């Protein structure tokens, strides 16, 4: 594609012109490097030539989450632009020069989920389901107004600018009371538009994934940035919330309050109000208006083929073994009755799509099924029953259930320890027992041996089976499968297995956690929002791989992310107002 070399227009030079000609951002023909890397190093992005003008609405679309994120990070000032844009190291030009970049440009990313806050240790995310601990009691409302809720100590209050309104609206010079009122008014409006009103007094830890994501967007908007970068904002949002959010973002963007730039995956639909697209692929950025770039996207976007691939091998029938049997299962948190008399049977070979709006109880239901939820113990006769693998839940040790149910979920991803020096191979191998280390304590002191399910060590035959199985999964889902060529399998797989888990990109970490869930050949696999952050090639490889194997439950708000079609006999379990219903596809 022919690149037009843009000249950057500063705010102060453009001010006499029509407002539509202002440049909001400008990177004029430059390479992007990580800070600390010299110009002789390999740039993260090459020959970027990109101008965003006032009035344009941009999406940054990328095939790999890491490249797309690199461009968004550049806008945040976290990458080095060489040569730098005229007037300074940052690409944002039309903004108030007096405002530091960390106040004027914000990024809220759903592609790269929050890493664990636990300094590298595995933290117990199941704590959310039990009695909420004192330190987790911060409510949604308090988190939005920390300076007023006692969460900020008096001694540091004077260092906090109540909000950024005075810096932002220099000419308005609002007094502190009207600033507060304005912030409160905006808060009410946003809470209403994103339907968070009923949740304001819940502890943050009690919010579902979709509720948390909406809350993070509100929090960022209350900080009044000039530009809000939203990376994959539709991830994990239910189908009713998506148009609401998009319409809110459109109206905010139209009034420059703030300007929105969206990060999207190649496979995501482009909202109709987006006028321009920056396509990040193979270390280069192509930019242009919507109609021109949609052609580029079609070209870049290899349509999913897995659905039409060879038909599935394993399917269930009414004689297949019952793995899970729920009879009148209920979960309550005080007056909130989240699951009401749920009846659900999962058989060997079943393919389930678990559906329901944000907050409808999907994660809660899965946590009952894995035995992580304390209320899984209270589902007993005569009122209810929870039978797992043929025996009542209460008769199972929870650790044993972990080796029989493979799980990938946002909670697991967030909680996964990253500071430890764990290789990709070891991370996958933890899947046999569902813990976070494959080795016994003694092994860590020098003699490496596998954990066994009873806490002891394994014999040689079992050790060999496990090691072979890790390599098998790596061959089935490793990097050579993501580009569809399957080239260089042996070398790629070996090199990949040796990488540090903590240092691979977020989408690749998701892929490794999927391999971990599958490695032990568990009879039941639960995949909750498993595709977040993965690029299209990974999704395609994973979907093709998942067409075989044991019973699988997929949680996704996107019908086309479910790896099976009608012909594969996929069944749907839908939660609505706490009630579950089964529908066949
Ligand atoms: N400790 C708690 N106290 C009160 N309510 C809670 C608690 N934990 C969860 N909830 C509520 O239970 C409901 C179900 O949450 P859950 O995480 O199961 O939803 P979900 O269907 O998985 O949503 P999403 O699609 O957003 O991930 C939510 O409305 C949530 O706020």
Key features?
AAA+_ATPase, 19 strands, ABC_transporter-like_ATP-bd, globular, alpha/beta, ATP-binding, P-loop_NTPase, 2 domains, Rossmann fold, 30% helix, P-loop containing nucleoside triphosphate hydrolase protein, 6-stranded mixed sheet, binds adenosine-5'-triphosphate
Report what the structure shows.
Keywords: ATP-binding, Hydrolase, Nucleotide-binding, Transport. The chain has 585 residues and is an alpha/beta fold. The protein has two domains: 276 residues, Rossmann fold (3-Layer(aba) Sandwich); 279 residues, 3-Layer(aba) Sandwich (Rossmann fold), CATH 3.40.50. A six-stranded mixed sheet has the order 5-6-7-3-8-9, with helices on both faces. Strand 13 and strand 14 form a beta hairpin. The longest helix is centred in the N-terminal third of the chain and has 18 residues. The protein starts with 10 loop residues before the first helix and ends with a strand.
Task: Return the average pLDDT rounded to an integer.
Answer: 80
CATH architecture of the largest domain: 3-Layer(aba) Sandwich
Strand order, largest beta sheet: 5-6-7-3-8-9
What is the CATH C-level name of the largest domain? Alpha Beta
CATH fold category name of the largest domain = Rossmann fold
Low-confidence stretches: 1-6, 10-20, 115-122, 154-172, 302-313
| Coarse structural class | alpha/beta
Query: Overall 3D geometry?
Result: globular
Helical stretch tally: 19
Strand content: 15-25%
> How would you sum up the major sheet?
6 strands, mixed
Spatial extent as radius of gyration: 25 Å
Organism: Multifurca ochricompacta
Family: Belongs to the ABC transporter superfamily.
Protein name: P-loop containing nucleoside triphosphate hydrolase protein
Domain ABC transporter: 27-307, 324-585
